[in-house]
Amino acid sequence: xxxxxxxxxxxxxxxxxxxxxxxxxxxxxxxxxxxxxxxxxxxxxxxxxxxxxxxxxxxxxxxxxxxxxxxxxxxxxxxxxxxxxxxxxxxxxxxxxxxxxxxxxxxxxxxxxxxxxxxxxxxxxxxxxxxxxxxxxxxxxxxxxxxxxxxxxxxxxxxxxxxxxxxxxxxxxxxxxxxxxxxxxxxxxxxxxxxxxxxxxxxxxxxxxxxxxxxxxxxxxxxxxxxxxxxxxxxxxxxxxxxxxxxxxxxxxxxxxxxxxxxxxxxxxxxxxxxxxxxxxxxxxxxxxxxxxxxxxxxxxxxxxxxxxxxxxxxxxxxxxxxxxxxxxxxxxxxxxxxxxxxxxxxxxxxxxxxxxxxxxxxxxxxxxxxxxxxxxxxxxxxxxxxxxxxxxxxxxxxxxxxxxxxxxxxxxxxxxxxxxxxxxxxxxxxxxxxxxxxxxxxxxxxxxxxxxxxxxxxxxxxxxxxxxxxxxxxxxxxxxxxxxxxxxxxxxxxxxxxxxxxxxxxxxxxxxxxxxxxxxxxxxxxxxxxxxxxxxxxxxxxxxxxxxxxxxxxxxxxxxxxxxxxxxxxxxxxxxxxxx
Length: 581
Hints:
The chain is mainly β.
């Protein structure tokens, strides 16, 4: 580990010599509370100077929206409730710090301050979303935007910045028919900034997730009509973020579609066949049970409890010895919102959007078209049974509040296989999700493309987990305890894998006999750690140097487990550890 940090320290003089801005990273002098409620907009907020806008004009006032962006024009639209690229490109010019559904009426507030030139800085204005949560989520986040009279600006995200149930967008645009210019903000550095050329639009869309928490960015006019965009490493907040998945691999395979996306499932199906090693092989196919006749009545946001003519086995459940123990059910709950609970008694209809986090963490379910559907408005729903099959069919059921009609079907079989089928489906106003979850899955696994299949899900069980306490801050001079939990058996030792880079996508380890496991980090350093029970700790010591601010280390655990696979190991999820303030 020392060698990794020492190598970065050798680059520090070069890093500071190329600093893009001399402005402070942030300020606690927030100015005036704009008093914004949920979806509120403060219009005609005077800057105190003329700010050059993307596209070659300028403004002396901005409209500040509670939902994480500012209009560089007179526009009181609130942008609720999910960011969309088409609106970003075609509406008025704006800067999206984190355009998503934020709610200052629940906590925090939106502040504004303006300052004349002085202290080596041109005239500037600061907009702060202080401790504001995503709508419906408990934890607040702080975002800050600095606008300078020279046309440059900076954005900053504290370590809590996250998007759980909405689509978010960050960037800048001249709007009014702008040309898209998607970039990976996480990849921009002082060594490799993004050069937008003559295009003043720069953006990144984040469906249900956010990967630049704890970071800050500088946007500097490049003289050609565009921007030079780079991370400000000296302004980084300390953070530890879990990513990837440990093994045994969870019983999960899903695809999600943000609102307005084109769902590419019409006249197709996916068969989920139980795999010999557990879990499923999900393969694209065709097929639709057309003999539906037993109509049921479903109200809006309702769940109908239904007995099955057989016990339906499904993947998931706790690790039992050397194999994953699955579960079975003789009763299901059919939600009007396009999914079934694989257990009776659950009455949560999960209105109103397909949500990947809930899909992972809730009890086991199968989503054949999880979004806000309303069979009470029109269409028909059916449940048809034979001795060996059950068919749940929605015919021309509308998406709530729209004329978008959907026909989709789930077929459950006595042998544990099942099929998702679609004739015509779409989503105009809601996020949609389809797939299988064995339930109780911590973390967040990436979605798949079922059309590109086949997709292989895990067999379930409890994956080993690497984590840090929420209070652990990787700051210069700190010692950060990392914990490996859910270790099976009593091995004498474990391994801590540390790297300068992460493998995204991860590298499957099946060719080494480590079936179902993946390598998430580069093997720049491997250290042995004595097993002390669950959890087993590892102390990550960070040298006390300010030049380490912004440096990232990636960590993953591996555990000796000869009974679980030929390779004799299982691996954990990974941590992205950002050293910062």
